[in-house]
Design a protein that fits this description.
alpha+beta; 16-stranded mixed beta sheet; 4-stranded antiparallel beta sheet; 8 helices
Length: 566
């Protein structure tokens, strides 16, 4: 028998070179895997531009043109986006008057669809003599991309328009200060100062901070010229009281994917530098509060949330050596685990631009409830301006409304107040529009300073209203209890809305909404007046007020949570 001798094969290169090649292969694998994941800010975006008032020359017809704007920045092919715009009213329970729909191939460059409305109540040619009556109408935009596929994405937007040919029939609303003075227990106690804040923005520490003339979307992480200190100075110069720079937690490795060559110590040091810079800026500018935190998560089938007071960097990415590029490992998509960590450490957060479905999953449930999440999450963004706006005159027209998703969180049992931010990625922190998150911070009369602790205390108490107008002041009470509170009640409940605007705007419409926390049901309007007396059924309830100004800008109160006793 002939034996074949087999010599053990050895690589024709020295061991150190084999290690280097293995490292390169790991880096290439890591980069390839990262490239297969959708990039941040690559999702479907759909908005509708709807003039609140008709133009001066269309007073009789009240006609105007709506613009549906669709973009899908996902690198690659265009996506088929099916959209429907529905006009209903007048009033929140009004019937559907018109419906427009279509399907568009949409890519990174986007599509705009102009939809003229003639002010008529019926699209049927035989009924075109009938004009829509005066009142407040609702526009609902539903856009669905790649319907019926595993990549299906959906966006829903709701806005108001006003039809007004005759004299105004605006509801009577008491003044903000008059409402505040009626609250019990304030005599001899510190009063409240309204802090107008932007609690969602980015700088060069992640994918923001580009100059306005060079900003065309999200930046490559850590490449833009402007950092947190630049952002704080800009925001203060533009009249804000507070700014949070909320950097993406998974970009501290300098990439939008996974950087296998990242040095954990450098990422952790950068986060600590941000915290230190914010504290130093606040100390040097007592009337302004600089905040630094992180935006945790991925948006595609996950969801972003801000952590306002996290002292350590959280993450899930590891480098080629298997080292965590963060202080604490938090698995991507594990929202229940994150909530538990946040509650344990006393950290609080905000649901950022939440989708109605597909985000913040717990046990497969969108915006799924956990007791830890309820303790940790204090805000829900109800409205944002475009994250990539380069507008610095507060006139941005691209805006998104997330009231439906926030209502889903409330109905699930979350105790969250509404917030309104700008998610700035360009160097226009707080200046793309006049929207703000307004926080009622306890304040002594002679004290003009603003502390981080006082703001965090107010956020935990949900003493917040969300406004599209930085001049607005809104108060919502129940039997003298301030919005954000939770209390037991017997007998009638007196709900009251108070409003003022230092620029002279008036209320055009008010709606008071009701829902049942933990019931996962609908949230419905129960009154179109500023005040209402109701005797709830025994059990838990929540109520909030939404006020529409005479320019179309909206202000949302925080909810009140009432446990009605028999």
């Amino acid at each position: 028998m002939v034996k074949t001798l087999r010599r053990r094969w050895r690589p024709p290169w020295p061991p150190w070179l084999a290690c280097a090649c293995a490292g390169l292969q790991l880096i290439a694998w890591s980069n390839t895997a990262a490239a297969q994941e959708p990039k941040e800010h690559s999702e479907l975006d759909a908005t509708v531009v709807a003039p609140f008032h008709a133009a001066a020359g269309a007073r009789t017809t009240q006609s105007r043109t709506f613009i549906v704007r669709l973009t899908y920045p996902d690198e690659g092919r265009p996506h088929a986006v099916r959209w429907t715009l529905t006009l209903s009213g007048p009033g929140p329970q009004g019937t559907v008057l018109r419906r427009w729909s279509g399907t568009e191939p949409v890519g990174a460059n986007g599509k705009s669809v102009n939809l003229p409305w003639d002010g008529r109540a019926d699209a049927d040619a035989r009924e075109r003599r009938v004009l829509a009556q005066d009142g407040l109408y609702q526009l609902r935009l539903l856009a669905v991309a790649d319907a019926g596929t595993p990549h299906e994405a959906q966006v829903e937007q709701q806005w108001h328009i006003q039809v007004q040919r005759g004299a105004s029939t605006a509801p009577r609303v008491s003044a903000f200060q008059a409402g505040l003075q009626q609250l019990p227990g304030l005599e001899g106690q510190p009063g409240y100062r309204i802090v107008y804040a932007n609690l969602h923005s980015q700088t060069r520490h992640s994918d923001g901070g580009a100059a306005l003339d060079a900003c065309h979307g999200a930046q490559d992480p850590q490449t833009a010229p402007y950092g947190p200190i630049d952002a704080y100075k800009y925001a203060q110069d533009h009249g804000l009281d507070a700014l949070l720079t909320s950097e993406h937690n998974h970009m501290y490795d300098g990439s939008d994917g996974t950087n296998a060559a990242a040095t954990p110590a450098e990422a952790i040091a950068l986060y600590q530098t941000g915290l230190a810079e914010a504290a130093a800026y606040s100390a040097a500018h007592p009337g302004f509060l600089a905040l630094y935190g992180m935006e945790w998560g991925v948006i595609n089938k996950g969801g972003h949330l801000n952590i306002f007071n996290g002292e350590q960097l959280l993450g899930w990415e590891k480098n080629a050596q298997g080292e965590l590029v963060a202080d604490i490992e938090t698995p991507k998509g594990d929202y229940a685990g994150l909530y538990s960590l946040m509650r344990e450490r006393g950290w609080i957060g905000q649901f950022n631009h939440p989708a109605y479905a597909g985000q913040f999953l717990v046990n497969g449930q969108p915006l799924g409830y956990t007791p830890d999440g309820d303790a940790a999450m204090v805000l829900c963004e109800v409205m944002n301006t475009s994250a990539f706006s380069t507008n610095d005159e507060e006139t941005e027209t691209r805006r998104s409304n997330y009231e439906a998703a926030c209502n889903r969180a409330l109905a699930a049992g979350y105790h969250v107040a509404f917030s309104s931010n700008q998610d700035n990625h360009c160097a226009n922190w707080g200046a793309s529009y006049g929207n703000r998150t307004a926080v009622l911070v306890t304040n002594k009369a002679a004290d003009t300073s603003l502390s981080r602790d006082s703001l965090l205390e107010a956020l935990r108490a949900r003493r917040v209203f969300a406004t599209m107008d930085k001049h607005a002041q809104l108060l919502f009470t129940a039997n003298g209890r301030l919005m954000g509170e939770r209390f037991d009640n017997r007998g009638p409940l007196h709900l009251a809305t108070s409003f003022s605007n230092s620029a002279g705007r008036q209320a055009a419409a008010v709606a008071i909404f009701h829902g049942v926390p933990g019931g996962n049901g609908s949230v419905t309007p129960i009154s179109d007046q500023a005040e209402l007396i109701v005797t709830p059924a025994p059990g838990p309830h929540f109520y909030y007020a939404r006020l529409t100004q005479d320019d179309g800008n909206i202000v949302w109160s925080a909810p009140l949570w009432v446990n009605q006793l028999p």
